[in-house]
Amino acid sequence: MKFTAAAQLITIGATIAGSVSAENLRKDRRSLYMNSGNSMANFRVGKQYTTWSSDEHLTKVGSTFEISPTDSYDFVPAKGYGDAKSVVAQLQVGKEEKGEAFVAELFGFFYSSEEATKWAKSTLRTEMIHKDQVPMPNESLIAKELTVDAVEELSLSEEKVLCHETELESYFCHKLGGDKTLNISKVTVSPAHGKPSTLFVACHYFGDVGCHVMNVNDFIVSTSEEKIDFK
Prior knowledge:
Low-confidence stretches: 1-8, 10-37, 227-231
Order of helices and strands: HHHEEEHHEHEEEEEEEE
Mean pLDDT: 82
Strand content: 25-35%
Strand order of the largest sheet: 3-6-9-10-11
Structural class: alpha+beta
Helix content: 10-25%
Shape: globular
Oligomer: single chain
Radius of gyration: 17 Å
Distance between the termini: 45 Å
């Protein structure tokens, strides 16, 4: 299934009506994610994750699955060779339709992990953050039958930021609301006669409900202490 930039990101105009008060912003944020339908979208390649599963198959010890080469799971395209342009273009459409300030609180595109992390701190309104990044596997896992050996759910705050590396050092980030609509687990898998490796599996409980394997270098930022508001 091919995703256009619009399908991958957001249909801002369809989810927001009227003025943006503080209360409306909270409602709009929830509507944005409940109606976006983008939880299946792999922003690195502009297609649905091949590992997408509507049940919890990916986090069940003993289950097996494969990662397709088309996911570009452990390969980050060079600048200009991924799907970054379409992501940036759709963000610009959103800014033109609903205002840069509104979009900037929920979404951003950044050209280094440092910039992306700085934005995450700002939108989460705290300097006290915890960052979990998807590691490179110990060997190539592509197109191999992988067996789930162990599962450990990450401890995440209710408000969090998820960043996808679409191209080398190019990150699309989006803020998730405080309704616990996303869980991420460290999943240890082994190919037959191979070395164990750790994957991150994200399970979404909004829009399209299900789980998928996150791509290498993608990361999640959550608050680690009581929030400290910026003045």
